[in-house]
Recover the amino acids of this structure.
């Protein structure tokens, strides 16, 4: 199976700061990339897709580096409500190719 | 309803019991997935349905696990002779897209937390 690796954290970040974390994947044939957010005891929810050219959604920026096989997520002006686990998801195109990382735990502190 | 619905929300089983977990996907969604999530881990793929066809069951950990979606809507995940290592949250997700198209947006249910004693 394809491997997706993330630093589990926790990342403790003061409110208002910028935080970034990466995810690496082992299958160079991977086609689609996503960040999901999971709150404690809740289901994962799609945060954003990751496109080759990089993409931004408000305070969130996602980037893909195919050569080095990693994707990143940058959160600017962090809010208390950003505290969650961020799951990196990589798809190779087949059903079992939708592989989740173990997640990075982010804690925004007041 | 508007989202993916799973029942029961919690299930406690004695080791050796059979359990059945239900998933009601969003109406009209073609794709349905089952995932297993252990504490502190990411979701692990179990099986995938495209309408009523089970196209991939490579993630099912043993032959004690069985899933069906007979009419292409509601799905049931059955675990026979439960073991303690089966304790986890079982997540169901659906998508309007056929997988492999690059449109892999999943809508997850709240999950069933299974505890095997």
């Amino acid at each position: 199976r394809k491997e997706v690796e993330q630093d589990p954290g926790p990342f403790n970040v003061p409110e208002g700061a910028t935080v970034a974390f990466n995810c690496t994947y082992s299958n160079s044939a991977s086609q689609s990339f996503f960040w999901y957010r999971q709150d404690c005891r809740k289901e994962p929810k799609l945060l954003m897709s990751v496109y080759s050219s990089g993409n931004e959604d408000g305070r969130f920026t996602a980037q893909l580096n195919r050569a080095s096989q990693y994707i990143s997520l940058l959160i600017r002006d962090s809010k208390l409500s950003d505290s969650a686990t961020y799951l990196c998801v990589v798809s190779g195109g087949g059903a079992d190719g939708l592989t989740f990382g173990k997640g990075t735990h982010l804690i925004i502190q007041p | 309803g508007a989202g993916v619905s799973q029942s029961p929300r919690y299930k406690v089983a004695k080791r050796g019991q059979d359990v059945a977990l239900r998933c009601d996907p969003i109406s009209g969604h073609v794709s349905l997935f089952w995932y297993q999530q252990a504490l502190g881990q990411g979701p692990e793929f179990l099986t995938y349905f495209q309408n009523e066809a089970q196209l991939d069951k490579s993630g099912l950990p043993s032959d004690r696990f069985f899933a069906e979606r007979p009419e292409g809507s509601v799905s049931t995940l059955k675990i026979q002779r439960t073991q303690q290592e089966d304790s986890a949250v079982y997540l169901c997700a659906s998508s309007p897209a056929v997988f492999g198209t690059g449109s892999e947006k999943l809508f997850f249910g709240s999950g069933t937390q299974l505890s095997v004693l």
In short: Chain A has a mean pLDDT of 91. Chain A has no helices and eleven strands.
